[in-house]
Amino acid sequence: MKNASTLQFARIAAAIEYLYDHFREQPALEEVAAHVHVSPAHLQRQFQNWAGVSPKKMLQYISIENAKRVLQRQGSVQTAAFESGLSGSSRLHDLFVSIEGMTPGEYKNGGAGLEICYAFAPGSFGDVLVAATPKGICWLAFADQHQQALQDLAAEYPQARLTEAAHPLHEKALAALGGQTAQTIPLHLKGTPFQLKVWQALLQIPAGRLKSYGGLAADIGQANAARAVGSAIGSNPVAVLIPCHRVIRESGIIGGYRWQRGRKMALLAKELERTV
């Protein structure tokens, strides 16, 4: 099931992805609009309303050249943490998101004994599925197809009791997803010690900054484990709040994303706008 806002964002994400892949040819608005099956005027209006800028202007924020500049300026995440300070818009993720790993029994037994409340909700980047245990948020995923999203959650926790119901932490997570970060959000995650270490490191990358896979591997003291780091990033169960979208290739290429490459580009374009 897809609502109007999800369909609109999917179109915008597809347009960004097309522009990114064909930037050297500088496609006209008419060509991009044809690719996403709307009129040029309709695409321009939708895009301007959503992003506040034209499609091509937004593309500048996620160009390979700009991505390289951001990577070069950042240095290590530890340096970024000290530079950014502890207040205002530069406040780091790890100041309001905390991670607790599940017990070995919960991890190995597919969430046996866990009560998980889940709900679907609309968002600026498409519908999401959010789920929580009594200890914290355990899942936050974009849900372009509601049924498939729920199946993915059930596959992750086959032995847990899943109930569609409101949970106090849902509201906090959705508020943070929308840019409001006043309250601490506990995460209760199923992951190996290595995965948890990588996800914790991701929390130290502020908005408007980028990190390469190799750079993140070095930051956790495992410089030769870039491939394993990439795998852990791809398994991140909490979209945006654990900002795996801020990790790109050393070459400046955006690369893939668990919840659609165009969505990753859109997330980064919004965050990198102020760096151009």
Helix content: 40-55%
What letter string, H or E per element, gives the SSE order?
HHHHHHEHEEEHEHEHEHHEH
Q: Can you count the helices?
A: 13
Strand segment count = 8
Strand order of the largest sheet: 4-3-2-5
Counting structural domains, the number is 2
Give the termini distance in whole angstroms. 37 Å
CATH architecture title of the largest domain = Orthogonal Bundle
Largest sheet: 4 strands, mixed
Structural classification: alpha/beta
What does this structure look like?
A hairpin with a 4-residue loop joins β3 and β4. The protein has helices at 4-21, 29-35, 40-51, 55-61, 64-74, 77-84, 104-108, 146-156, 168-177, 193-202, 213-219, 226-234, 261-272; strands at 97-101, 115-121, 128-132, 137-142, 161-164, 185-189, 211-212, 247-248. The chain is 46% helix and 13% strand. α1 (4-21) crosses α3 (40-51), α4 (55-61) packs across α13 (261-272) and α11 crosses α12. With 276 residues, the chain is of the alpha/beta class. The chain has two domains: 4-61, Arc Repressor Mutant, subunit A; 67-275, Orthogonal Bundle (Arc Repressor Mutant, subunit A). The model is unreliable at 77-95 (pLDDT under 50). It has a four-stranded mixed beta sheet with strand order 4-3-2-5, with helices on both faces. The protein has a two-stranded parallel ribbon with strand order 1-6. Strands 7-8 form a two-stranded parallel sheet. The radius of gyration is 19 Å and the shape is globular.
